[in-house]
Design a protein that fits this description.
By secondary structure, the chain is an all-alpha fold. It contains 7 helices and no strands.
Length: about 130
């Protein structure tokens, strides 16, 4: 059973989708390594991106146990674990918690898909049916 409101997770999914379809930030000096370029891209400043601002505000407003569950939903939906391991997934998220949870989450380009899958494994969807 989820302690975090599935509607809140659905809103995070919408915001993650909006954030990840944004135009890339232009980085003046690109490196010679594609991995480094991607890292710079992900760390680039997006102050004008309202999707991220709202996403961050929602995550920061969640109680820590709810933040743990959102991270656990990411891992579950990504296929790192199965639903039967839910309690241990949440415990691992608790053990690895950081005040930078919003940034950790949004740094996953497929966050929306993974959260949606995690919710579905719990019997929820973002169309209002539970």
């Amino acid at each position: 059973m989820l302690n975090v409101n599935p509607d809140t997770v659905c809103r995070l999914i919408e915001l993650a989708q909006a954030y990840n379809v944004r135009e890339p930030v232009s980085i003046p000096e690109e490196g010679s390594n594609a991995v480094d370029d991607w890292s710079q891209q992900m760390l680039a400043d997006h102050r004008d991106n309202t999707s991220y601002s709202e996403f961050e505000a929602i995550v920061k407003d969640l109680e820590p146990d709810q933040q743990h569950e959102v991270v656990a939903l990411l891992w579950l939906g990504r296929g790192d674990y199965v639903l039967d391991e839910w309690d241990s997934i949440v415990q691992q998220a608790r053990d690895q918690w950081s005040p930078e949870t919003a940034q950790y989450l949004i740094d996953h380009p497929l966050l929306a898909d993974h959260l949606r899958e995690g919710l579905e494994l719990h019997g929820y969807d973002c169309n209002g049916a539970a």
